[in-house]
Design a protein that fits this description.
alpha/beta, FAD/NAD(P)-binding domain, Enolase-like, domain 1, five-stranded antiparallel β-sheet
Length: 480
């Protein structure tokens, strides 16, 4: 190990979406930065999650589209996609984006990139390979990895995770999926539309983090696609018969059941990467949920911040690339400009890219009732917009949760382009808008966004029925 240590202003551990967001911001302000990455630049989002999954979903949508159009001849045979070409499409998309996340790009920005494992030696020093880094500030952005449930026999069975599923050399004949959250639902639907038989197993309910009413729409969509869905089950054991993999479970009646498939995918959540970082040496508190941070992303060591998937505590459930990007900005604001910074997870939208999509922000109906007591719920079906009628996309709704005075508390959208519609409600929540602002919004016609305005108008519909309002209109009519 060299005796001469590096003394940058900032040392970032991890070059996934979170770490790269900090690095890019730091470079823009001329902050001397060292970026350490043991694996591939770009991390999980680029190589095994956000990007490949959306590329796979795009291919799956191509396979499904002809059956959605009512004017297509009934005798038309749905296309059968070539699995090798689908995988090639996924890898080509990754390769196209990779240069933006490469070490060459960040080196050109003036950042020193080290390909090594990082470990805290003490409160002010990190070791990376043969180098020591003593920085003014550190940012841990070590990411997460798939959670593997404790199931009897699982260690003797070959299984897939998001880290391996995109490299499958052949299309699974029957894919068993443990977990029906966002990842399980997205990949399950994608593989079903690509020609696989798919069965989902969930110990709670489908999309447990989403509003039950919205999740119900997705439940219907998955079942129409021919996906088997078992909710509220208890996993008992996994075995490996000669023809694939067998999952033993019990249903809500405690009756023993079993299902045999050719492949098993584990989609049971994420576990933060904290091992091997020497967090104890750095006086950095953590638990099984991740690294503990305050609302400014600062750890128990005031020199060290943590962002992205590796953080835990009250922020453990907000593992999104866009959340990490927001946290990166807060770190730069706090660490180098001494400005107040506070991460509010309720302002971070979340999306499940099934078909139809699910997007939400803020409080759900249940959470709003617990926090505020009296609330108002407003709904408007997407299918009642003229754009939805024209395209034959009748499924879904906009659901709003508001305080009695009309201030928005939360929003959920289920339907085509829900991910593109949720930013409006994110802004409304961030700016503490009342629904009257959205109700007065002029939206282009015909678009699905009309449903957002119509949902806001629903808040004021009861006002028109009040006797006082009827009498007022009667008086005004007398004056012409």
């Amino acid at each position: 190990m060299t005796d001469e240590a590096l003394h940058p202003d900032l040392c970032i551990i991890g070059a996934g979406a979170a770490g790269l967001s900090v690095a890019a911001s730091a470079a823009a302000f001329g902050v001397r930065t060292v970026l350490i990455e043991e694996g591939e630049m770009g991390g999980e989002c680029l190589h095994t999650a956000c990007i490949p999954s959306k590329a796979l979903l795009a291919a799956a949508h191509v396979a499904k589209w002809p059956s959605l159009a009512p004017f297509v001849a009934r005798e038309l045979v749905p296309p059968v996609l070539d699995h090798e070409r689908v995988l090639a499409h996924v890898q080509n998309v990754i390769a196209e984006i990779a240069p933006a996340d490469s070490s060459a790009r960040y080196t050109a920005l003036g950042i020193e990139v080290l390909n090594a494992r990082a470990e805290f030696v003490d409160r002010t020093t990190v070791k990376a390979g043969e180098k020591l880094i003593r920085a003014r500030r550190f940012v841990i952005a070590s990411g997460s990895q798939p959670s593997i449930p404790e199931i009897a026999g699982l260690d003797a069975v070959s299984y897939l995770t998001n880290e391996t599923v995109f490299a499958l050399s052949e299309r699974p004949r029957h894919l068993l999926v443990i977990g029906a959250g966002s990842v399980g639902a997205e990949l399950g639907q994608a593989f079903r539309r690509l020609g696989s038989e798919v069965t989902l197993f969930e110990q709670e309910r489908l999309l447990a983090h989403e509003d039950p009413e919205v999740a119900g729409v997705i439940r219907g969509a998955l079942k129409r696609d021919g996906i088997g869905l078992h909710e509220g089950i208890r996993l008992a054991a996994v075995a490996a018969p000669s023809n694939g993999v067998r999952l033993h479970y019990s249903d809500q009646t405690s009756a023993p059941r079993q299902e045999t498939g050719t492949h098993l995918l584990i989609a049971a959540g994420r576990t933060p990467r904290t091992q091997g970082l020497g967090l104890e040496n750095g006086w950095i508190k953590y638990d099984k949920s991740g690294i503990i941070v305050d609302h400014g992303m600062r750890t128990s060591n005031p020199r060290v911040f943590a962002i992205g998937d590796c953080i835990g505590g009250v922020f453990a459930g907000w593992r999104f690339t866009h959340a990490a990007s927001l946290q990166a900005g807060l770190v730069i604001r706090s660490a180098f400009f001494r400005l107040p910074a506070r991460f509010d997870p309720l302002l971070v939208p979340r999306v499940t890219f099934t078909d139809p999509e699910v997007a939400s922000v803020g409080l759900s109906e249940d959470d709003a009732r617990k926090r505020h007591g009296a609330i108002r719920i407003c709904r408007f079906p997407l299918g009642e917009t003229d754009r939805a009628r024209a395209e034959g996309e009748r499924e879904g709704l906009v659901k709003l949760v508001a305080a009695p005075n009309g201030r928005l508390l939360g929003a959920a959208i289920c339907g085509k382009a829900a991910a593109e519609m949720i930013p409006l409600w994110t802004l409304a929540l961030q700016e503490k808008m009342k629904l009257s602002k959205i109700a007065a919004l002029v939206t282009p016609y015909p678009t699905l966004s009309e449903a957002s305005r119509r949902a806001a108008l629903e808040f004021y519909t009861p006002l028109a029925r009040r006797p006082f309002m009827r009498r007022l209109l009667g008086v005004l009519r007398r004056f012409g």
